[in-house]
Design goal:
alpha/beta; five-stranded parallel beta sheet; 39% helix; binds 2-acetamido-2-deoxy-beta-D-glucopyranose; signal
Length: 396
């Protein structure tokens, strides 16, 4: 006769074994992010020779501990906000020195790099950046590491179960086609350049599919002719209409490409999401949305414009939530939130909480920047998905 104690021990052991088996059988759903400075969470910060790095104050002032964290914004990126909404962990930067196979299996990886484009030649003036092909090459290396760690079969399941974001294109115009120093500006016309971009993006999306990407979202472009840098370069101070037209053509062509691929590639759910119209309306009617400036950067160096990046010497606007743009190129946290919400609405993303241990960790209270030399490697998540945007801390 088995004693009650033995029965209990056996029961506990069976439960423990079942627990381990269920963990082995189902990898976590994570994200792999490919992008430019709008999605970079620290890759360029580690590229010593890059001329596009968000490594100095006041970048990150409204994020976690307020130190620069590699994001080209005062707060969160659009991908941060969408991932939080879906309930997925925020993937660390590929160049994060603390990245390990275990971290990749728990959180995914973010390959986005400021200055990067769909085209290899885009952003050449920034010297160092990962273009999309390079990001995919780094992803292949990551896959090899994971295969060695958990075996080919489990790895294939892991990568097929993951979510993918591809968010590039702004630099292919702003830091390539529209600048005469780049040869693409005279080799192509508007129409042939868009065709060239689409042909390249099609190959890249097919390549990602061949590597296992099944659930993938491509972000479209906003009205990039209205970023402060474009306005200051126009004689009237208004938006550059030609640039906006190019962004609209890009969006139209990539929406079609993504929808076609979603139909033709086996088991693919590829979606296209953009927030062009909402952002254009915010820029035209900032007051309607609680903004009060939509044409200049919140962070600026007195009257010296364009200052390209936000610098420690720069001064900040009084209320960072009332500015659509954080610097000459990049939207503020609050504008990113509007963009993210629009994409979430359009694509019908639901909160799934697919992670077993609830990903968005509670945010630390906002604190003034400290002078600790090394920022923590894990970007601290800062708000629960439904939390309203924090009001900036140290303004007014
Ligand atoms: C683009 O760069 C990748 C490496 O990052 C290289 O393999 C590829 O051949 C390049 N493509 C072109 C068209 O230059
Ligand atoms: C598509 O999904 C089915 C069912 O899960 C699977 O058997 C098949 O191998 C998949 N095909 C590809 C190309 O992933
Ligand atoms: C800053 O602006 C936001 C958005 O308009 C507003 O909700 C908030 O109250 C403002 N904060 C301060 C301190 O004025
Ligand atoms: C921005 O807000 C300030 C202070 O509330 C106000 O004086 C100013 O007119 C506003 N500007 C715009 C463009 O809404
Ligand atoms: C997500 O799921 C986990 C485990 O079921 C739960 O503990 C956690 O509270 C959930 N998170 C949210 C934000 O609902």
């Amino acid at each position: 006769m088995e004693s009650l104690n033995m029965k209990m021990i056996r029961a506990v052991m069976i439960i423990a074994v079942l627990g381990i088996l269920s963990q082995l059988g189902s990898c976590k759903v994570v994200q792999f992010i490919f992008g430019d400075s709008l999605s970079d969470v620290g890759n360029n910060e580690k590229l010593a020779k890059s001329a596009a790095r968000a490594s100095l104050p006041w970048y990150g002032i409204d994020f976690g501990d307020g130190l620069p964290n590699g994001r080209f914004s005062n707060g969160r990126t659009v991908a941060d906000i969408i991932g939080d909404h879906i309930g997925l962990p925020r993937p660390p930067a590929f160049l994060d020195p603390s990245l390990t196979e275990d971290k990749i299996l728990e959180n995914g990886v973010n390959f986005a790099s400021g200055g990067g484009g769909i085209l290899n030649e885009t952003g050449g003036l920034f010297i160092q950046r990962f273009c999309l092909y390079k990001q995919i090459e780094l992803f292949r290396g990551t896959q090899e590491l994971i295969r060695r760690k958990i075996g080919a079969e489990e790895a294939a399941k892991f990568f097929e179960g993951a979510n993918y974001v591809v968010a590039l294109g702004s630099n292919d115009f702003i830091n390539n086609y529209l600048q005469p120093v780049y040869s693409d500006s005279w080799k192509y016309t508007d129409a042939t350049f868009i065709d060239y971009l689409m042909g390249t993006l099609e190959n890249q999306l097919k390549l990602l599919h061949s590597l296992g990407a099944r659930q993938l979202v491509v972000f479209g472009l906003g009205p990039i002719g209205c970023i402060p840098l474009q306005r200051i370069l126009s004689s009237s101070g208004g938006c550059q209409e030609r640039t906006n037209k190019l962004a609209l053509s890009f969006n139209k062509a990539s929406a079609k490409l993504v929808n076609d691929l979603s139909r033709s590639l086996p088991n693919a759910t590829y979606q296209f999401g953009d927030a062009y119209d909402v952002v254009a309306d915010v820029i035209a009617n900032p007051n309607k949305y609680g903004f009060n400036n939509s044409d200049s950067p919140c962070c600026s160096l007195g009257g010296i414009r364009p200052a390209i990046l936000c610098l420690p010497l720069s001064t900040l606007c009084a209320n960072r939530s009332t500015y659509v743009f954080w610097d000459e190129y990049h939207p503020s946290d609050r504008a990113n939130e509007m963009i993210a919400k629009e994409i979430i609405r359009k694509l019908g993303f639901l909160y799934t909480n697919s992670t077993s241990n609830g990903s968005p960790s509670p945010s630390p209270a906002e604190a003034p920047a400290r002078s600790t030399p090394e920022a923590p490697t894990e970007a601290p998540a800062r708000s629960t998905p439904e939390a309203p945007t924090e009001s900036p801390s140290s303004d007014d």
